[in-house]
Structures are given as structure tokens and as C-alpha cells.
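Below is a typical protein record.
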Amino acid sequence: LILMATSESTNADNPLLIGDVGADHILYSLANTPQPLQFVEEFQQSAGLSPRNASSALPALSLLDLHGVPRAQVYTKIMESLKSHLIQTIERKDVDAKSLENLLEQTFPYVSFEELREVPLSIMRRMREVPPRFLKKLCANKDLYKACPIEIKRQIWLVDESLFREKVFPLLNGYVSGEGGTPSLSQDILEMMPGEHFLPPNKRRESNTLLQKIVSLVGTSLPLYNMMLHFFRTLFVSTNNPSFCTLRADLLMALHDGGVSEIYEVDPCHKFAWTLDACVRDSAVELRRIRELQGYFAALPEGDPVLGDLAMIAASPFVVHMLVHNAFITLQHVVENQQIPKEDETLKYITWLLTLGVQARSMIQEQKFQTPKSGKTVMHAFYPLLAFKIMDDQDRQPNQAPSEELNTNLDTLFKTNEIVRKMMFYYMLSRVAARDYGCVEQLIALVLSLGPSIADDMDFIQSIVTQLIQCKDLRMSALVIDNMLLPIKTSIPELSVPVHKQLARYLAESASRLQTKDIVQFATRFVAGSNDEVMLAPLYRLLIERSGTRLNDKVAPALYNYLYGGSSEPHHPPPAAPSAQPLHTTTSPTQNEQGNTRTK
């Protein structure tokens, strides 16, 4: 039984005889008294229910004694009843902050005891600000820290940032890698062309379990939200992973979705993020949206660190791909209307937003928050070249070779300007969809000229495989795979596994329409020289499952040897593993659609 009372023998410096203190007191007293039985009786009288402190309870105690009920059981029941009544009192809304703090001072010593821990924790859960001295004691004890509810942990994290990092970093890593959250996030975020399979942004956020966990950790705490944004900026600068830009926007908009106005209303990026979120949802940048976006920057002081966060939101791959898509659509309209690209205001502003996103990392890294100038290189040099290319490709048959070689200036811009590269990638995807073999073959040479730097453009690699799956053209598939994807896989070691994964996805998604000989030929070439079977086995097993009885170890020996090595067991088409899902379903009709924050 926990000794919860004070006794006459305890001094003022240590009045509570609980835990080790109480045990030491009893041992010391028994060892130093000539009459131990008398000490035991006196201690029972002072620390238990006795005529001195509970005379009205004596008749009930005597009755319980007659029925053989142990005193330990009686005290435990009394303690539970008093604790329940006290907690109910604590949770009443009319208890003021001062009373709560006084009560916490008296009950905190019992926090180490599981039977009474709920009392001080209930008090701290009610307090808007728990005094730091209590929080530091909680975070110093691992077991007590784990036992704290989330409301108290949020306050602990404010005094010990390392505990917050320890909690949140695994979630951030899972989010950007697509593991454990929304399975389609790591795929959708890389798709450059809009598709019906995309979830609307709010639905994507709702279904991302890791994002929702991050939101629950922040709660309504503005300091934790600011701390989280600092993590995003730091990780984005150190890793150059644009998924942290998506997370910057997603966290803000998830709080908006959840109605956490204590945070989103004081984030100066809120309206900007909300407007771009609507543009991503509609896959369109309308004139009224452009005017709204322009208004945010007009009111922003020069050198304001908030510009760095705005740039991060503009650098989110979902936003970048939407802007590139709209820039291309606008440029097509300019070509059709025989206009000059640099005079189109919509194209000019979309290009400016793309420029802002491109400069996000350097802006934060160098702490130079200056509004970027309009992309003159893109507007004055690149768009006229691309417009001419569009007209040339529209005036001939897809089977015909382009009438002219690519302009050397275009080749230079492609290698040195990120916006130009994104636009040319998008244009190549559109020509794959249009089955323009001549143009695609011409652009393949442009892509290969990037060399190892193509590793920064996995969104293009995935997107072109998606277009091959969707266009269902074996000739186009062979052209792209043989002349671009396989050379990249074999010549750039760091892309060997990612590109192989996309090639395996192509086979798994296309198995139902490809002939057996084509599947075998492709698979044999894909697995040649590869030793990544552990990572890609689920996709190839899915391919075997979808191919039915067409594939076996006799028909596709290279594939089976890749999967199962030299095993002497007969190779029957095995069922796909439960987790073996295609990276990105594009043909299934059942796929779902798809500075610190300043207080106002």
C-alpha cells in the first residue's frame, strides 16, 4: 500500500512518506527504536484511518474487520473513490488556473505511482501552460513521458525539442518516401500530367495516415507548428527533396480542412496555399485566381522571410506539374491564335510562379528573400522556340520525321534552365500520347544529353512510363524503352533500380494486352545484369499472376531465375504477395480520382 499521508516523525523538508522515502523512514525507525511494536502501532495510527483523523469511519472499519476484509483492500477502494471524485472536480470548467496549479503542486509527487498518476496528469491536461519545472521532470523519466497524454506531450516538446524531433522525424521520412501513408502519394507526386486517377487534394490529405498523425501531434499549438515548419525548411535545404514543400502546404491545408483556425488564420501563407490548392484541384489557373495570387505578393514587404515559405509552396511537385500543364495549354492557345508568347499575361504569370518555386531552396539557404524577376530567358528565348516546334509537329504526320533539327539554343536552354527542362519533358509526354514517333525519337536524344543529371527528374521517368501504359502502343513502348529507359538503367548506376522499377511496373500494368513473346522479351532484357530482385519481386510476381498460365520457368527462364535463383523446386506461377500492388494504376476503372508564422 502506498503511504500517502504525513506522520509526526517526518520533517518539514520531506513531509510525504511515499515510495522509497516512506520505506526508508520505516526501516530507519524500526532499526533505531527499542520498542518496534509500539512504533508500528503509532505509525498505523498516524498514517492510517484512526480516531485521530477519521473517527466517523471507525464503525465501518470495525464491521469490515469482522467480515475479514483486509485493510489494504479497504484503503485501495477508498483511494480509488477519492481519486475519481477529485478527477471529476478537476475536469469541471469552473476550476480556475491558480487552483489547478496549487493542486498540481500538492499532487505532482504522486506522479511516479501508477495508481495515482492520473490525478496530476488530469490537472496538467487542463492547464493551458504547465510550469516548466514539472515538464522537465516528466521528460527526464522515460516511463513518465510515455504515459503522458498528447496534450501534455505537446507542452513537453516545447521545453525539449529533441523529444519532438524523435517523435516526428520518422513520420516525415515516411511521408516523403510514401511508406505507411497514402500508398499512391509517392507515385502521384511524380506524375507530370493530370489524370482521372488523382485524388482531389483534400481527399488525398484525408487518406494520408502519416499526415493525419503529424496534424494530431501539432494540435492547436502554434509554437509546435512553427517548429514543424522549421524542420520542413531545414530538411528541404539539406536534402533538396521537394516532397517537404508538399508537406509544408499539406500540413497547412490539413489544418484548414480540420478547422484549426488558431493556426491557419495566423499563417500568412494560408490564402496563397488555399488558392494554389484550388488550382491543383481543378488542374487550371484561371484569371481570377491569378489576380488573387498577385494580391498576396503586392502586400508583402521586400525581404520578408514569408516569401521563402510561399516559394516552398510553389515548389511543391503537385503545384509545379499543374503550372507546367497550364503553361503548355496557354502556349498552345497562343500558337493557335498566332500571338506572341511574351505578350500573354497568363503565360507570363504562370512562368513567374514557376520561377518562384525554382528559387525556393536557394532563397531559404541564402536567406535572401527577394521577389524574383520575370523569367525573361523562358519568355523571350524559350517559348518562341517551343512554339515553332509545336507548329512544325502539328503540320506533319506522326510517322514522318521532323522537318528540322532541334535548335542548338533549345539544347543549351534545356541543359541549363529547370523550367525549360520541365516544359520540354511535358511536351515529350504529350507527343508520346499523340503517338508522334518522329518527334519522340528526336527528343530522346535531347533527354539522353543530360547524362547523370537526369537522376533529378524521376518525375519524368515515371510519367513517361505512365504514358506508355495509357497509349497502349507497342511501337511507341519499344521506341522509348529501347532507346531511352534501358540505356539510362544500364549507364547510370544510381538510376538502375528506380528505372527498373518503372519498367517492371510497365509490364505488370500491360500484361493483359501484351503478347506472351513481348512480355518475355521485355522481362528478359529488364532483369539482365540486375540484382535487385528483393525490391522488385512483388511487381514481377504481380506480372506472373496477371499473365495467368502464359508464364512459367520454361517460357521465361531468365525472369524465373531472377526471382528464384537456382532453386530446384518447380516454378509454378505464385500468387502475388498481399502488398504487391502496381506502383500506379492507370487503366483500372475502379481507381479513385485523384520565416516563422507570424501572429496577426
Observations:
- Residues 385 and 498 are 32 Å apart (CA to CA).
